Amino acid sequence: MDNRSSTVSLTTSSDGTAIACEQRGAGPALVLVGGALCTAASDAPLAGLLAADFTVYTYDRRGRGGSGDRSPYAVEREIEDLAAVVALAGGEVMVHGMSSGAALALRAAAAGVPVRRLSVYEPPYATGPEARTAHLARTRRLRELLAEGRAGDALAEFLRAVGMPDEALYGLRRLPVWADMEKLAPTLVYDHEVLGDGTVPVDVLASVTDRVLVVDGGASPAPMREAARSVATALPRARHRTLTGQTHEVAPHILAPALAAFLAE
């Protein structure tokens, strides 16, 4: 199969929600779990690089792209979604999670989803003394804005929180891509729910028995790197690696070889 091409399929989660998946490549099965505002299409560049060695599955998390959604939301439903994709891929596969997708992958592994090996990139936990209060306040604010039908304002709130300057946000809101991003805004609450109270879930991570590679970027903000180190410390069988010069927006051609080397061990 051409690494740039993919086959599209649907699987069904435990609550009946349809989850859209893409498959490319050949080799051991690897599932990619995207972060906030990401879809299967967002993960295509990394999937294409890894498809030389793996059968790579990307999917639209619920409420995104070609996947369905049901209310009320619960993190357990997203764990079931990932379990359905893992089952589609053959069961007991390898998993890589990015950002909030990393937090979801870790929670799924802790919940017993059969994962043979796991890698995560910069799960966005906070480690400062006021982290929990700030995270819960931001989650409430997103819920309020979305309940008022202000998806664009909720999206802007999130982007400011992750460091986008107002000048850049002003320009982005005037681009055609803004409308597509705004459609994903309701799922921002899902990402915040996956993170729990926003702090490193030490008790949850202690129950993950799989081998885990925790990766961060050498040019990422210090709190992001500190969170990655804290996650690696809390996991029983973890290895920590820093990719020199990379940020939270890691370059696929830099990340892919590091993942491939670990997953092939």
Automatic annotation (TrEMBL):
The keyword Hydrolase applies. Pfam families: Abhydrolase_6. Gene3D superfamilies: alpha/beta hydrolase (3.40.50.1820). The keyword tRNA-binding does not apply. Residues 31-254 form the AB hydrolase-1 domain. GO terms for molecular function: hydrolase activity. Keywords: Hydrolase. This is Alpha/beta fold hydrolase. It comes from Streptomyces zhihengii.
